[in-house]
TrEMBL record:
It comes from Amycolatopsis plumensis. It is found in: Cell membrane. Belongs to the cation transport ATPase (P-type) (TC 3.A.3) family. Type IB subfamily. This is Heavy metal translocating P-type ATPase. The chain holds residues 406 to 696 of 759 of the full protein.
Length: 291
């Protein structure tokens, strides 16, 4: 493309709420055939709320929230913020030995007791038995599109927290526009398969890659590229940064974390997913006509 065409593209992008970071971004966006979208914070608002707390093993709701919030107070995950908000403790108990376990949850010691907060897999991997009745409760909430966080104290399941996040109002229309442009869409998430499928169905995405650990998100992009696809990745989180950098074109949501924005080629300033098809059309319009 000529420098003039690129400048026109950058200017039109700015009007649409798209910041173009480098000269290659427009050229790359013209060739994209597959758009991979992160779930939490990209297709959904990322503003999670705890809708239910179910204590187990003769504990009270307050006890479960108190230990879970103590650990989550040290975490940066959107789920953690929801748990802390729901607990609304004046003086949360102190946590020591806090460890963030990306894609799984977090752990720490509260009142001298080891606590795990996260998905069932985290508990199982740490030798905590998840009884079939609990697993069934988890599955039922997930089928409705919720994410379930389990809390374990001293290697025993203490309770479950049902967390929800709303799909962005613009998501279904954005996906429809991408399909009309002949593009293939994929939902990529660390969240479990059942929740991910419920969200994907709500917005019209058929291809779901769920339960993908943060370190594996880039490998999913790499495999799609190895299969001959030109891939755009849309994401917002720290866990999306390697995938954004690996994709032919990385689109970062401006409300996301700095690390994701640094890895992106285009930054979407408005929190409206319809900017994604706009961004891909931008290159066709400017480079396609002016070059
Ligand atoms: P996404 O790809 O949807 O942004 P993540 O990779 O950040 O999701 O996390 C995947 C899953 O791991 C979450 O859906 C949740 O079940 C669990 N998880 C991760 N961090 C936490 C945490 N701090 N507290 C509770 N659960 C967590
Ligand atoms: Mg995200």
């Amino acid at each position: 493309a000529t420098p003039t065409a690129l400048m026109v593209g950058v200017g039109r992008g700015a009007q649409l709420g798209i910041l173009v970071k480098g000269p290659d971004a427009l050229e790359a966006s013209r060739r994209v055939d597959t758009v991979v979208l992160d779930k939490t914070g990209t297709v959904t608002s990322g503003r999670m709320t705890v809708t239910e707390v179910r204590p187990l093993a003769s504990r009270t709701e307050h006890e479960v929230l108190r230990v879970a919030a103590a650990v989550e107070a040290a975490s940066e995950h959107p789920i953690a913020a929801a748990v802390v908000a729901r607990a609304a403790l004046d003086a949360p108990p102190e946590v020591t030995d806090f460890v963030a376990l990306p894609g799984l949850g977090a752990s720490g010691v509260v009142d001298g007791v080891p606590v795990l907060v996260g998905r069932a897999r985290l508990l199982v991997e740490n030798g905590v038995d998840v009884p079939p009745a609990v697993a069934a409760e988890v599955a039922a909430a997930e089928a409705l599109g919720s994410t379930v966080v389990l809390a374990a104290c001293a290697a025993e399941v203490a309770g479950l927290l049902v967390v929800r996040d709303e799909v962005k109002p613009s998501a279904a229309e954005a996906v429809r526009a991408l399909h009309e442009m002949g593009l293939r869409t994929v939902l990529l998430t660390g969240d479990n398969d059942v929740t991910a499928r419920a969200v994907a169905a709500e917005v019209g995405i058929g291809d779901v890659r769920a339960g993908v650990l943060p370190t594996e998100k880039a490998s999913v992009i790499e495999r799609l590229r190895a299969g001959g696809h030109r891939v755009a990745m849309v994401g917002d989180g720290i866990n999306d940064a390697p995938a954004l950098a690996t994709a032919d074109l990385g689109l970062g949501i401006a409300t996301g974390t700095d690390i994701a924005l640094r890895a992106a080629d285009l930054i979407l300033v408005r929190d409206d997913l319809r900017v994604v098809p706009d961004a891909l059309r931008l290159a066709h319009r400017t480079l396609g006509t002016i070059r």
